[in-house]
């Protein structure tokens, strides 16, 4: 049975623009967040608290946090280390998303530490967050690594066994470089569900190899009802070669609405926001509904 509702967490202000050559102004970032809220966003990953020398697009994290329209959505900040967590906490965000990387090589390149060190740091920040800020954990490169290749399920489960000794409010499985197929989603979500049946799971999918939406549907069929997406399908990781393109928010909402699954998003307004973002970035973005237009939900078609 399909769920009646699913949540789309908007990540364009962070993952969407972090690899762009065009660095958006503070006003443009807040306008993007405003447009996402107007289109239906209730949770938004607004920035990351990382080294501005490595990710200059996120250099104004504190300024973004200070300028947010409070009370209109829940705001999430990404942290990769203790300093990033402390900055997110001081910025007064609603949630912090802390990344643990499944691949040793990618962990060292992305966060400057081993996976074991990442797990220990997750335990530290999760305990520090208790009663102060919501804390979710993302398992990055959960489906494959640009440097090591396949990430076997036993490796994933072994890392999660240790990491989830301190459970997150939500676990996000991230297809960071867009290598997963629907069968991979089914297998990995199923393995996590069997071991931790009560743990909320979110999927962070990229459409790098044109499987992102099929993977989202596999997630739905596996019982997942929360997904990251980015207006226009913009996105990429500065530390993962050839990692491009989140699933597009408006395209994902369209697909789910046609199946009778409510997301709370207005597809037309999301497409309009995606076209606005495309103009700000100065190049074509991957989203399709923003180009083709929407169509009535299946329940309304006659």
Overview of the molecule:
The protein is an alpha/beta fold and 302 residues long. It has a single domain (7-300), classed as Aldolase class I (TIM Barrel), CATH 3.20.20.70. It is built from twelve helices and eight strands. The protein has helices at residues 12-16, 26-39, 61-67, 82-90, 104-111, 115-129, 153-163, 182-195, 212-221, 249-258, 267-281, 289-292; strands at residues 7-10, 43-49, 74-79, 95-101, 134-140, 171-174, 201-204, 226-229. Strands 1-8-7-6-5-4-3-2 form an eight-stranded parallel sheet. The protein is globular. The two termini are 23 Å apart. It comes from Salipiger thiooxidans. Belongs to the HMG-CoA lyase family.
Task: Describe, in short, the structure shown.
The chain is an alpha/beta fold and 302 residues long. Helix content is 40%, strand content 14%. It has an eight-stranded parallel β-sheet with strand order 1-8-7-6-5-4-3-2.
Shape type: globular
Count of distinct strands: 8
Low-confidence stretches: none
Radius of gyration: 18 Å
Could you say what the CATH topology is called?
TIM Barrel
Features:
14% strand; alpha/beta; TIM Barrel; 302 residues
Task: Reconstruct the topology from this structure.
Elements: E1 7-10, H1 12-16, H2 26-39, E2 43-49, H3 61-67, E3 74-79, H4 82-90, E4 95-101, H5 104-111, H6 115-129, E5 134-140, H7 153-163, E6 171-174, H8 182-195, E7 201-204, H9 212-221, E8 226-229, H10 249-258, H11 267-281, H12 289-292
Parallel strand pairs: 1-8, 2-3, 3-4, 4-5, 5-6, 6-7, 7-8
């Amino acid at each position: 049975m399909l769920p009646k509702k699913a949540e789309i967490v908007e990540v364009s202000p962070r993952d969407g623009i972090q690899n762009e050559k065009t660095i958006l102004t503070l006003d443009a970032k807040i306008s993007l967040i405003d447009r996402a809220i107007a289109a239906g966003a209730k949770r938004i990953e607004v920035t990351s608290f990382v080294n501005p020398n490595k990710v200059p697009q996120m250099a104004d994290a504190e300024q973004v946090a200070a300028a947010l329209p409070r009370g209109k959505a829940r705001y999430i900040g990404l942290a990769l280390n203790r300093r990033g967590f402390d900055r997110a906490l001081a910025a007064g965000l609603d949630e912090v998303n802390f990344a643990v990387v499944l691949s040793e090589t990618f962990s060292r390149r992305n966060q400057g530490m081993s996976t074991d060190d990442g797990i220990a740091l997750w335990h530290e920040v999760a305990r520090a967050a208790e009663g102060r800020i919501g804390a979710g954990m993302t398992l990055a490169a959960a489906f494959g690594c640009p440097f090591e290749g396949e990430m076997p399920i036993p490796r994933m489960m072994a890392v999660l066994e240790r990491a989830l000794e301190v459970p997150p409010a939500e676990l996000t499985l991230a297809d960071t470089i867009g290598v997963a197929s629907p069968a991979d989603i089914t297998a990995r979500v199923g393995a996590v569900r069997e071991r931790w049946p009560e743990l909320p799971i979110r999927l962070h999918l990229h459409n790098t190899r044109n499987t992102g939406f099929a993977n989202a549907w596999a997630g739905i069929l596996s019982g997942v009802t929360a997904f990251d997406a980015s207006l226009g399908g913009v996105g990429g990781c500065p530390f993962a070669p050839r990692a491009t393109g989140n699933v597009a928010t408006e395209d994902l909402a369209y697909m789910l609405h046609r199946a009778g699954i409510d997301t709370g998003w207005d597809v037309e307004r999301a497409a309009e926001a995606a076209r606005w973002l495309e103009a700000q970035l100065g190049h074509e973005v991957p989203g399709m509904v923003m180009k083709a237009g929407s169509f009535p939900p299946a329940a309304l078609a006659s």
